[in-house]
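Incident review: delayed structure delivery

Summary: a single-chain prediction request sat in the queue longer than the usual turnaround. Root cause was a stuck worker, restarted by the on-call engineer. No data loss occurred. The affected request and its eventual output are reproduced below so the record is complete for anyone auditing the incident later.

Affected input:
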Amino acid sequence: MKLGKTGNNKFLKQFNETSLLELIRLNKQISKADLAQLTGLSPTACGVIVSNLLEKGYIREAGIGISKGGRRPNLYELNPKSYYSIGVDIDVDYIRFILMDITGNVEYRDMISSRFDQSVSESIAFIEKKVRQIIERNAIREDRLLGVGVSVPGMVDNVTHEVIFAPNLGWERVDLESMMSGMGNFPIYVDNEAICSAISENWIGCCTEQRDFVCINMKSGIGSSIFADGNLYRGCSGSAGEIGHIMVDHNGPKCACGNYGCLETLVSSRSMVEKAQKLVRQGLIADFSDELDINSINSIDFIIDAVKAGNESARVILVEAAGYLGLAVANLINTINPSRIVLGKELVKFSEDILEHMRNIALAKALKYPASRVEILASELGEDSSALGAAIVPLKKLFGHRL
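Output delivered after worker restart:
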């Protein structure tokens, strides 16, 4: 990968450092001679930059390479456990935390229960306390913390990074970055949870080689994010990919956004749990236990476990949701024309036969040619994908990627 000729001018120092750092990341181990060849910088300039990166602790020597004529060259690689980032994923019933080092290795992860009616200030205080604990327990110097990325289930403005609307949290027009800026002497980055998932899939997941793909997440709501021609596509204001608020049944339930029959009201974990509770109250799920406490039906795990135990009524709930999702996926195939669609968060809990039902509907309803070129699969990153992506955001900034 050749990044193109960079400059030796002092005003390009930061750009040149970032370019070399990215090449070291991509190549795992590389010599100064190869860095010079790939960048177009002189060997002397490369030597100065490599020395600066060594001094700052970003990289380290990685041994001796193979000779291409002359002395065997020194190799350089990213320095593990030198710099860190923290990812925070906020949802209605939990907050996930990830500590990641400069190489993308996860050093710590945790998930803590929270209340869906928690105020913004309560959430910030909770997050700040936990971030402080992570920093102290891992003995991280603040100048070695590249930043804290925060993932939220809602629309985030492209320019201001303000949380415009997070209906499931009850948040509207929240400048979370500014409100969290007093947490420490490090930057705060706020982004949409589906976008964070796409970032993690592109950085460390199943889409590192994909240029056109879509990630779909399901939890309290349902959303998607789009990579087009190798870059995130956000739209003019940052709301691209809000498939959860596409109307799929005009006679459907009322959504938190104010409309009726949104995909989110029929496919999200919360909507399926509410449907299971309603059917039990009405006595329409007779094959559930008579001793069942309706309040114990509080997560999609209950429904999935019931399906595994052979409960047909529970299976119908998942099949119907998969059908609606298949229709939405067909529309994505037709309009976005991705090479891959990745299903994340709680969609990874669906059994293969349920996912296959969804795929069959999507491929049957989509146009044949784009449908023949797409792969639909479950994420290998699971429910941590948004927290991982939030932690990767500060790393992307360090390596010169557009956010």
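Verification: The first strand starts at residue 30 and ends at 31.
Action items: add queue-age alerting; document worker restart procedure.
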